Amino acid sequence: FIPFMGRTELKQILSTMAKYMKQMTMTDDSIAQALQLQVAYQAARCISSLIQMTPELKVFALDLGILKLAQDGVNIGACRHSMIGTLSDHIVSSLSVTSK
């Protein structure tokens, strides 16, 4: 049993994180980058919390492609914002155990 709200929220948050991480890499405007980074970081925090709720949400996140998205977050964090990189690394670590 996967909570309906958890699945819906996770899907929306993953979409938001992906959108803002992509936009962040496509603009030279530092203010826009900062705002996009903030939204992506908050989305990553929500994802991190949701995947800790149940093993089913972890599996659902994997099915939605969270592992690649979080790995992209690690790469972005390495060059732009260490907090999103650290949080993304935590997500990757949490999900790597599940995906084995």
Describe this structure in words.
The chain is an all-alpha fold. The chain has 5 helices and no strands. It has helices at residues 4-26, 30-51, 55-63, 66-79, 82-99. The longest helix is centred in the N-terminal third of the chain and has 23 residues, at 4-26. The protein is globular and about 40 Å long.
Record the SSE blueprint.
Blueprint: H1 4-26, H2 30-51, H3 55-63, H4 66-79, H5 82-99
Helix pairs in contact: 1-2, 1-4, 2-5, 4-5
Distance between the termini: 21 Å
Put simply, the count of helices is 5
Q: Kindly name the structural category.
A: mainly alpha
| Gyration radius from CA atoms, angstroms | 13 Å
Mean pLDDT: 81
The geometry reads as globular
**Which residues form runs of ≥5 with pLDDT under 50?**
none
Proportion of residues in extended strands: under 5%
Q: Count of DSSP E strands?
A: 0
Question: What does the main sheet amount to?
Answer: none
The helix/strand order is HHHHH
- Assign a percent range to the helix content: over 70%
Short synopsis of the structure:
The protein is mainly alpha-helical and 100 residues long. It has helices spanning 4-26, 30-51, 55-63, 66-79, 82-99. The protein is globular, with a radius of gyration of 13 Å.
